[in-house]
Amino acid sequence: MLKTVNIIATAAYPWKTGTAILALLRAFYLAQRGLDVRLYVPWIPPAEQPLLFGQNTRFDSFKAQEDCMRAFLPGDCPSLQIEFYPAKYIEYFGSFLPIGSLFPMCVVSQRIRFCEWLILEEPEHLTWLHPRNSFGKRASRVTGIVLTNYLYYYKSVLPSYMHFIPKLFDHYNRWLTKRHCDDIILLGRALPHLPKSQYLNVSGIHPSFFEKKFSGESYSKKIYFMGKLLWAKGFQELIDLLSMSDIREIDVYGAGMDQKAIEVYGDSKGIKLHFQGNSSNPAKDIKDYKIFINTSRSDTICTTTAEALGQGKFVIIPAIPGNDEFYIFKNCLVYSSPQEFIHQLKFAMEHNPEEDSGVYSLTWEAVIDRLLQYYEETQFGGRNRK
């Protein structure tokens, strides 16, 4: 019977990104099932923290950030241990990268403890700079959870004459995941297939997002987007589509290096983007909105889309493989052309969302059921450590 689980994440709360929040909640809910869980997250120097955590958020110690992370959780969980490894934020990648070899730099234990099941959140990302890390020596089984379509991301940000780079990068990522993982979970169908992989939605949302509007209660706010302020998140498409509609403004939550350029482009199209900065309490901040628009095509199972559905909002999203898990929900409005987008936006403006019992599948209780069933039922073969 499974007893010990380690999870290594590529981002840490209070950065409001899916890779930080999903890993933290996954660890919490596994520990709630009686498992001994240890979560390893990146630590960046206090001087760099405000860039990601917000201007007024800075931690001078591991304990201070751990307390913040635990305050975000739905309850107490002494069996969940949190440890930090040193990392640096690389703005061009929009990501944390580990500094040095991960194992000897881990705080407290000085190395990752041996466990029965090691979960690597974004295994390729964790090992880009340190491909020789021997994760397999620290666990009976190593499972990678792939969350990001890096092939799409780099195709979208690099000029066409550098088309060979995304392909080389994709080959490198495939080698890394094959080397370090016994088996791989692909979070969505937008992700390229990998050896030893299968698609499985193991992404849930915080229980605070299930506080819905009462039937007939009015919405004081209309439309918002929440996510990183990067062109790769679909901002050009968002602005272009809004410019064809009767809606000329939208609230935007998040931060990123492309904010100014996005604002300038919006102004050129007559669209006002009201930048709200990073949200310290997303469930509260978005509660009064009726419609979430997410035009991103780089996401797999987008956390902010799931959160909006859990809170009973309309979501307007493009018809792409990464969104197909959401099509079953009553309040999901899908478009495949500008005309369909305008039609769906008009429908959402004129109607109220419906109650949908199907959102239970987005709860972490349902997610952990699926994850543990996967562990028990999925066979994994020998490791290729060459």
**The level-1 CATH class of the largest domain:** Alpha Beta
Q: What's the helix count?
A: 13
Mean pLDDT: 88
At the fourth CATH level, what is the homologous superfamily of the largest domain?
Answer: Glycogen Phosphorylase B
* Structural class computed from helices and strand pairing: alpha/beta
Q: What's the arrangement of strands in the largest beta sheet? A: 4-3-2-1-5-6-7-8
The largest pleated sheet is described as:
8 strands, mixed
> Architecture of the largest domain in CATH?
3-Layer(aba) Sandwich
Q: Provide the number of structural domains.
A: 2
Helix percent reads 25-40%
Quote the CATH topology of the largest domain. Answer: Rossmann fold
Number of strands: 14
Strand content: 15-25%
Looking at how many chains there are and whether they match, the oligomeric state comes to: single chain
Global geometry: globular
Structure characterization notes:
- It is a single chain.
- With 386 residues, the chain is α/β, with parallel strands linked by helices.
- Helix content is 32%, strand content 21%.
- It contains 13 helices and 14 strands.
- Helix 6 runs antiparallel to helix 7 (164-180).
- The radius of gyration is 20 Å and the shape is globular.
